[in-house]
């Protein structure tokens, strides 16, 4: 016959495998946060910019089924339980152009894709500029490079001394 401790261990393992314990822990954390948050301290109103950012994060969390994180995120940020803006409003406000391939994805994916696309375009353009300067010989652009003046490059320079724009370090 199994001991009480063995039964507890089997029960705990089964609940963990089914994800029940994770849900319970997230619910407890959310309730603790709500209780602590409701102690008479009034939260500052959320700005419209923060509300839009929070909605982008909410949509991303819902899409990826991060329900436990979302159960803490919503009360912590002061967002209403129901989204205050619809997706079309946010897309229009942020000037995000959607097509049939992106309508089913969170807007945050589109933003990241757009930034990555712009960075790639900048890198290709910079590469072409370097090729042109090599073909033309010693130009002002080449003089700038020889003088280690990197102020003509797009993006902030990294502090590592490699004179790469920060975005190159991020995406490499």
Automatic annotation (TrEMBL):
Region Disordered, residue ranges: 134-172
Ranges of biased composition (kind: Polar residues):
148-160
PROSITE patterns under this entry?
LISH
Q: Does the keyword Cytoplasm apply?
A: yes
Would you tell me the Gene Ontology cellular component terms? centriolar satellite; cilium
Record-annotated FGFR1 oncogene partner (FOP) N-terminal dimerisation domain positions = 48-112
Coiled-coil spans are none
**Compartment(s) where it occurs, according to its Swiss-Prot or TrEMBL record:** Cytoplasm, Cytoskeleton, Cilium basal body; Cytoplasm, Cytoskeleton, Microtubule organizing center, Centrosome, Centriolar satellite; Cytoplasmic granule
Source organism superkingdom: Eukaryota
Q: Does the keyword Cytoplasm apply?
A: yes
Where does this protein chiefly localize?
Answer: cytoplasm
Keyword annotations from UniProtKB, A to Z = Cell projection, Cilium biogenesis/degradation, Cytoplasm, Cytoskeleton
- InterPro entries xref list: FOP_dimerisation-dom_N, LisH
A GO biological-process term? cell projection organization
Please give the PANTHER family that the UniProt record associates with this protein. FGFR1 ONCOGENE PARTNER/LISH DOMAIN-CONTAINING PROTEIN, PROTEIN TONNEAU 1B
The similarity annotation says: Belongs to the CEP43 family.
Question: What is this protein's function per UniProt?
Answer: Involved in the biogenesis of cilia. Required for the recruitment of PLK1 to centrosomes and S phase progression.
The protein here is known as: Centrosomal protein 20
- To which species is this protein native? Tetrahymena thermophila (strain SB210)
């Amino acid at each position: 016959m199994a001991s009480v401790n063995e039964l507890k261990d089997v029960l705990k393992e089964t609940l963990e495998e089914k994800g029940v314990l994770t849900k319970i822990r997230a619910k407890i954390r959310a309730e603790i946060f709500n209780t602590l948050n409701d102690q008479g301290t009034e939260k500052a109103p959320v700005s419209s910019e923060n509300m839009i950012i929070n909605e982008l994060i909410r949509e991303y969390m819902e899409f990826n089924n991060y329900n436990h994180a979302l159960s803490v995120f919503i009360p912590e940020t002061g967002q209403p339980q129901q989204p205050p803006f619809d997706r079309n409003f946010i897309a229009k406000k942020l000037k995000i152009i959607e097509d049939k391939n992106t309508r089913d994805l969170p807007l945050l994916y589109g933003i990241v894709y757009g930034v990555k696309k712009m960075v790639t375009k900048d890198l290709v353009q910079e590469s072409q500029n370097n090729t042109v300067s090599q073909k033309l010989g010693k130009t002002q652009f080449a003089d700038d490079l020889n003088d280690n003046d990197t102020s003509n490059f797009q993006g902030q320079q990294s502090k590592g001394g490699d004179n790469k724009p920060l975005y190159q370090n991020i995406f490499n």
